Each structure stands twice: as structure tokens, then as C-alpha cells.
Amino acid sequence: MERVAQLLDRYLSGPVVTLAEQRHLQAVRNGVISALPFIIIGSFFLIIAFPPVPENSAIARWAEEHVREILIPYRLTMFIMSLYIVYGIGYNLAKSYRIDPLAGAQISVAAFLLTITPHTIDEVGEVLPMTNLGGRGLFVAILTSLVAVEILRFCKRKNWTIKMPDQVPPALIRSFEALIPVAMTVVLMTLITVVFRIDLHAVIGKLVSPLVTVGDSLPGVLVPVFLITFFWSLGIHGDSIVGTIARPLWEVFLANNAEAVVVGKAIPHAAPETFFQWFVWIGGSGATFGLVLCMLFFARTKYSKTLGKTALAPSIFNINEPVIFGVPIMLNPIMIIPFVITPLITSTLSYFATVLGFVTPTYVMPPWTLPAPIGAYLATGGDWRAVALVVVNVAISFVIYYPFFRMHERKLVEEEETEQRIGA
Q: Which phi and psi angles does 126 have, rounded to 5°?
């Protein structure tokens, strides 16, 4: 096993870590993460607008009468998530290049907005359609923000900037330095959208449509689940790699699901990020809450008993680094098997439970540190069946981990007995 670990570290770990640290991927990941507060808070207004109570109740009638007003915070936060994300991507990418991050963020927003053509409405004037500011426009937001910051970087490297005297305030100096890259970005995006009438949203939508189809299929669920647990088994933060690539797609799924709820249509996607969070990663990556229960109730060694008690509270809130590095699961040939197999089984069960209509697809994003039953209930807009699915998945996790934990325990018992003999 040690030889295999060395080979994997040499030929796989290095390239994978390099990919995870790639500047543009990190900027995209950090930009998406920076918008999570707006997505989380905005999605909760969907629950207020469509409360999980009987339709003839006073609360439901009140919500129906005021649904338009209730949804305003949602429409100006989660519904236009791409606008917040593009700002975050531009800021983080410019910061990584050590150029003015504020200029990078603002240029990115301008480039993105210039992909959307205003409409004229009588008695109102020019209005900007909001649809492509949300999940539908996320891939265009990523592309335009990267291009805009690269233009800013190019101008900075070529020294194509307007110089101001040293006596001018620094903020004004930075503003004039951004004039040329802003002009180049605006002209470029104007040529694409206005002169050549290229709808980037339609073009990118067609290009990524196969990815959307695959990503929402059972293989599209199982592949990232396997890769995340596989990388964690090697001691590499799996989500920082797989999530960096997949999270934009998951956010599109979540936004589409939320929009479908608002307009009263069928929820289209089974597997946004909230699907994985509440039905697969119960207790953290590898669905290790079942393993914590094994340690609590069936541990024979002092070490496992202490670790089980210590890891219980973090596991309830989906933090399982104490388990991964404490058991350890990482590079442990016994525990790696259930660590990989368990989430594959629970994700398969959860996927079919969702697509067959036994559980409502997730469309709300609660904070990831909530206990799984609560998070699943909120994410599905108040579906009690989601709580039942969580309980079933925890039971499956416990059953799968138990025999491997017993094998692991026998090894620990032998080690403890050996230490006692040596000490005596």
C-alpha cells in the first residue's frame, strides 16, 4: 500500500494539486464562493413565498397574496447570482495577478453586462432583462470576466496606461490607469453584441448543453462523488479539485430549479450542489456520520472511543476532517473501501428517489453546516420525505462502515496489546 501511495503521489497527486491551484480555476471557485451569502439568503425567500404548509392555511393565503413583494429580495440576490459571481471572479483573478482587484471586478461586470441587449418597453424606457443575469448566464459570466481581466493585465504589462502626476490621489491614479483597458473591453464586447449581433448566451448555451445533460444524469452524479472520495483517500482535498470544476454547473442547476418553482413549472434538475450536500455528504465527504456512530457504540479501543466522542459534534455539522485524519481514512486500505463505496450507494438511491418523484428536488441553499435532516428539509422547500431519505442514508452508511470498522478495530486492539506488553 505504501508503494502504491508513493506512485500515486508521484504521478497523480502533483498534477492534480497543480490543476487545483491553477490561477483561473481558483478565481472561478472563489468568485462563486463569494456569492454564496446572496444565494443562501435569497433562496430562503422562496420558502417564505411558497411555505411548506397546507394550501388553505392562513400563512399560505398570505404568501399567495404577497408573493410578488416577497420574491423581490430573491430576484435581486439569488436570481441574478451571475452578476455577483462575475464581480468576485474579476476581483480574485486580478488580485492573483497583483493588479488592481477593484478595476478587475468592475471591468468584468461591464464586459458581462455588455452581453445583454436592453429592451424598450412603452412608458418605461430601456430595461435590462434579468434572466441572463442569473444561473443561465453563469458560463458567459465566467468567460467574460476572465477575458476582461486578461485585457487589463495585458495593458498593464505593455504599460498601456495613462500616467498621472504623483500629487494626484491614488484612487484617481488607478481610475485613469484603467481607462485604456476599459475602452478596449467595452469596444470588444460592443462589437460582439451590437455590431455583429452575436448572442453569447445562446452560443455558450448550445456548447454546454451536452455538459448539462450529462451532469444531471446518474453518471454525472457518481463520477464527481467517486473523484472527491478518491482524492480525499490520498490526502488531497477532493472538493477543492472537483468542486472547482463542477460547482458552476451545480449552481446553474440550483438557479434553474428555483426559477421553476417561482413560475410554477416542474423542477428540472435532480443534482444541484444541494443534492450532494444533504443526501450524499452526511457528516462530510465519504458520508462518515455512519462511521462516527460505529465508533460511539461499538468501539473497543480507547482511541476509537475518544475519537468518536470528539468527532460527533463536528460530524453533526458536516465537518469530518477529525475523522478523515483521526481514524485515519487517508491512505488506510481498510477504511478507504467504505469511504468510497458508501456515498456511491447513497447517491444512487437518492438520485432515483429524486427523479422518480419520491423526494422533491432541492432548490433552496441552506448553510452547509446545518444538521443534514434540517438542511434537507429546507433545501426541498419543506418535504418531510427528504428527512426520511437522510435517515435511510445514515442507516446505509452505518451498515456499510460497520464490518470495515470492526476489521480496523482488531488491528488497533493488536497494536494496543503490543504497546502494553512492551511497556510492561
A: -75, 130
Give me the amino acid identity at 30: N
Q: Is 346 helix (H, G, I), strand (E, B) or coil?
A: helix
Q: Is 125 helix (H, G, I), strand (E, B) or coil?
A: strand
Cβ-Cβ contacts under 8 Å for 173 (sequence gap 6 or more): 164
Find the mean pLDDT for residues 205-217.
89
pLDDT in tens, 178-190: 899 999 999 999 9
b/e 73-96 (16+ beta carbons within 10 angstroms → b): bbbebbbbbbbbbbbbbbbbbbbb
pLDDT beyond 90 at 419: no
Helix (H, G, I), strand (E, B) or coil at 119: strand
User: What is the DSSP secondary structure assignment for residue 271, as one 8-state letter?
Assistant: -
**Burial (CB count <10 Å: 0-12, 13-18, 19+), residue 325:** exposed
Q: How far apart are CA 293 and CA 200, in angstroms?
A: 51
The span from the CA of 224 to the CA of 45, in Å, is 30
Q: Whole-angstrom Cα distance, residue 343 to residue 331?
A: 18
| Cα–Cα distance measured from residue 365 to residue 41, given in angstroms and rounded to the nearest whole number | 8
The dihedral of CA 297, 302, 307, 313: what is its sign? positive
Closest CA to 254 of 240, 233, 271, 237: 271
Residue 249: CB atoms within 10 A of its CB come to: 24
